[in-house]
């Protein structure tokens, strides 16, 4: 691995993101890609003027949310 490459360790967590008028926001979390995509589809039907996508979270991202007191899941 070269100096400019980062190795990501992915968590069993997916984030649903949205964007409207250039303004992004976090819409929710899921423990499975299937349920995250279902939530994305639901959001697309109620918020037709926004763009939505699903991304798998890294372990570092998940730890950052938890350290900030914003744990997406009950432990």
List the helices and strands and how they pair.
Blueprint lengths: L9 E11 L2 E8 L2 H14 L4 E8 H9 L8
Antiparallel strand pairs: 1-2, 1-3
Structure description:
With 75 residues, this protein is of the alpha+beta class. The chain is 31% helix and 36% strand. It has a domain of 47 residues. It contains two helices and three strands. It has a three-stranded antiparallel beta sheet with strand order 2-1-3. Strand 1 and strand 2 form a beta hairpin. The longest helix is centred in the middle third of the chain and has 14 residues. The protein is globular, with a radius of gyration of 14 Å.
Round the mean pLDDT to the nearest integer and report it.
Answer: 89
* Uncertain residue segments: none
Number of helical stretches of at least 4 residues: 2
Oligomer: single chain
Radius of gyration, whole Å:
14 Å
Strand composition percent: 35-45%
Secondary structural class: alpha+beta
Q: Record the strand order, biggest sheet.
A: 2-1-3
The sequence of SSEs as H and E is: EEHEH
The largest sheet is:
3 strands, antiparallel
Intertermini distance: 34 Å
Helix coverage percent = 25-40%
**Which word captures the global form?**
globular
Total beta strand runs: 3
């Amino acid at each position: 691995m070269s100096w400019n490459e980062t190795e990501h360790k992915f968590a069993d967590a997916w984030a649903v993101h949205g964007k409207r008028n250039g303004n992004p926001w976090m819409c929710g979390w899921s423990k499975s890609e299937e349920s995250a995509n279902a939530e994305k589809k639901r959001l697309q039907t109620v918020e037709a003027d926004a763009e939505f996508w699903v991304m798998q979270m890294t372990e570092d991202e998940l730890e950052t949310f938890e350290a900030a007191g914003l744990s997406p899941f009950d432990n």
